[in-house]
Amino acid sequence: MQAPDAERDLLIDAARAAGEVAMRHFRNAPEVWEKDDDQGPVTEADLEVNALLEERLRSARPGYGWLSEESEDTPARLTRDTIFVVDPIDGTRSFIEGSNTWAHSLAVVE
């Protein structure tokens, strides 16, 4: 794992970029789908933010694993000592409703 300050800075920069993507959709009628097995809604913003975060974070730390609410989980992450854990838009229902109670949840777990 990198130094804590470097990890924090990477996550903050990624979250800011994710915010720019999300705000293009916020209160702008994003396309919404229901996930399988009553897992709740997902929006086009969730998927775009997820793609951006995965590209940015994994290219910065290629040795880290990846676990995201909007990506299919694979056993590959179990072979890594350090992983990114992500919810691209935590509070998707609030996001859809136009409420300000949503966030990007990003963590590095060792």
Order of secondary-structure elements:
HEEHEEHE
Shape: globular
Q: What is the assembly state of the chains in this entry?
A: single chain
SS field, number of helical segments: 3
Q: Within the largest sheet, what's the order of strands?
A: 3-4-5
Description:
The protein is of the alpha+beta class and 110 residues long. Helix content is 41%, strand content 23%. The protein has 3 helices and 5 strands; from the N terminus they run H-E-E-H-E-E-H-E. The protein has helices spanning 4-25, 44-60, 92-97; strands at residues 32-34, 41-43, 65-68, 83-90, 103-109. Strands 3-4-5 form a 3-stranded mixed beta sheet. It has a two-stranded antiparallel sheet with strand order 1-2. Strand 1 and strand 2 form a beta hairpin. The mean pLDDT is 95.
Key traits:
5 strands; 110 residues; 3 helices; alpha+beta; three-stranded mixed beta sheet; 41% helix; two-stranded antiparallel sheet
Outline the fold blueprint.
Elements: H1 4-25, E1 32-34, E2 41-43, H2 44-60, E3 65-68, E4 83-90, H3 92-97, E5 103-109
Parallel strand pairs: 3-4
Antiparallel strand pairs: 1-2, 4-5
In short:
With 110 residues, the chain is an alpha+beta fold.
